[in-house]
Amino acid sequence: MKNPITYKGYSAKIEYSDEHGCLIGRVSDIRRSITFQGDSVEKIRQAFEEAVDFYLSDCAERNEVPEKPAAAREVVRVSPALYSVLALAARQEKKSVNEWLAETCKKPNDTED
Q1: pLDDT band at residue 56 using 50, 70 and 90 as cut-offs
Q2: What are the phi and psi torsion angles at 77 (to 5°)?
Q3: Mapping DSSP to helix (H, G, I), strand (E, B) and coil, where does residue 91 land?
Q4: Would you call 110 helix, strand, or coil by DSSP?
Q5: Are 57 and 21 within 8 A, CB to CB?
Q6: Which residue, 2, 26, 34, 84, is the most exposed by fewest CB within 10 angstroms?
């Protein structure tokens, strides 16, 4: 897709479903599965924008930080065991792993050498 549709920093992958006889879209570059459909370009764009707006408002209601598209974030790879420890620490503070890690890294070092 040369010119993907975008809205509020999110992009969508759109395909035609012969089985359903309509266009089916999915928000790209985030782990959360956000899908939508429409039977015209105008309706698929409207459905995409509504899906993104719903996702953002749902995150706000839950006090969750919405995922940013992959192009807008840096990726750090860690072992599954370390990720489990990070996820547990973040969950205890009701934060995402990224939010918890960013805040923890910004804290001044409390120990002296």
Answers
A1: very high
A2: -95, 130
A3: helix
A4: coil
A5: no
A6: 2
With CA atoms as reference, report the closest residue to 36 among 23, 55, 18: 23
Rounded mean pLDDT of 64-69? 88
Name the token pair of 59. Answer: 């995150």
Q: Which two tokens stand for residue 91?
A: 């969950």
Q: How far apart are CA 29 and CA 70, in angstroms?
A: 5
* Residue whose tokens read 């840096």: 74
- Here the tokens at position 4 are 């993907």
DSSP 55-81: HHHHHHHTT-PPPPPGGGS------HH
* Single-letter amino acid code for the residue at 71: A
> Cα–Cα distance between 28 and 79 in angstroms, integer?
25
- Percentage helix, strand, coil for the chain under 3-state DSSP, each rounded to 5: 40, 20, 40
Separation between Cα atoms, residue 36 and residue 10, nearest integer Å:
14
Q: Per-residue pLDDT for 22 more than 50?
A: yes
Q: Are 56 and 49 in contact (CB under 8 A)?
A: no
Assigned token pair, 60: 């706000």
